[in-house]
Amino acid sequence: MKLSIARKELAQDIKTLPIKTTKVLTRQDLVDLVQGKFIALCVSNYYPKWLCEHLCKRLLKLPEFSRYIRAQNVGVQRTGITFFETKGDPVLLERYYAEAQRMRNTIRNTCFPYLSPIDKLRVELEEIWSAGARLENIHGRPMMVGIARMFEDSFELPPHQDVLARDIVDNCSDGLLLSQLSANIYLREAKFGGELEIWGMKPSYQEFLELARDELHFDQNKLPSSEVLYKPRAGDLVLFDSGRIHAVRPSKQGPRVSMSCFVGYRGQNVPLTYWS
Questions:
Q1: What is the pLDDT, as a whole number, of residue 172?
Q2: What is the pTM of this model?
Q3: Cα separation of 143 and 247, whole Å?
Q4: Could you tell me which residues are beta bridge partners of residue 228?
């Protein structure tokens, strides 16, 4: 399938957008990111490198690590079920909410007496955003936030999008997101590979179907070249619009480990939300 002229123009425009690298997370940088002034925001040394490895060793001992229910063929494991995996299944949805508090406590207790990377991010978002920040609450129940992810050697995460609205099948939401950010705090980098790849494109669901190789992933042969190829370093925080196509290249001599969540934006005077 050929990309539309508009998509080609978008891809060309995005190539001029930089990754912004900074040492401190600020409100203005978040606003600039959601407004598309740069394609990704990297806060270097966001979490102490020595503590990254210390917590990584602890987290990797958790028995909750397993592959995503909806992506059993992809060698990426996470701690606890994520909302994306429920896809309207009432049994999985109930399991998700039932496990949310327990898994938040499990991660927090595993990191104790240190502040977990996700708790650090949650506190800072609440402090820098004038309207504050809170747990996402779609069905009147607090959601999970902050999973640890481990990439198995030689596996990749194929090109895909993360869009909350596509995972809510009952239309039970308290407001449409204007932007959904993926937040990743890296604890261990793979010796080889493991680069984060981002495209400038934000296809609609119909456009995804035309470019898809399966129900979750894009056919990379139908995509133009990506605009970003970034090798994460331990301690980095990276945020980008998860509606943009993104992928992770195969990693070796890892495992590559990070903690992640989504951050929802509904306007500058509305609280940010976060979930996993």
A1: 62
A2: 0.91
A3: 25
A4: 198
Domain ranges of the chain: 5-275
- C-alpha distances (whole Å) from 208 to each of 1, 105, 123, 160, 181 are 11, 36, 35, 9, 19
- Which residues 6+ apart lie within 8 Å of 60 measured at CB? 150, 255, 257
pLDDT at site 16: 56
- Chain centroid to Cα 30, Å, comes to 15
Q: H helices within 198-256, ranges in order? A: 205-211
Which run of H or E residues covers position 5? helix 5-14
Q: Tell me the torsion sign for CA atoms 67, 71, 76, 78.
A: negative
Edge-to-edge strands of the sheet including 228-230?
Answer: 157-160, 246-248, 196-198, 228-230
Confidence at 11, pLDDT banded by 50, 70, 90: very low
Q: Which amino acid, residue 193?
A: G
Return the CATH class of domain 5-275: mainly beta
Q: Which residue has the tokens 């992810």?
A: 149
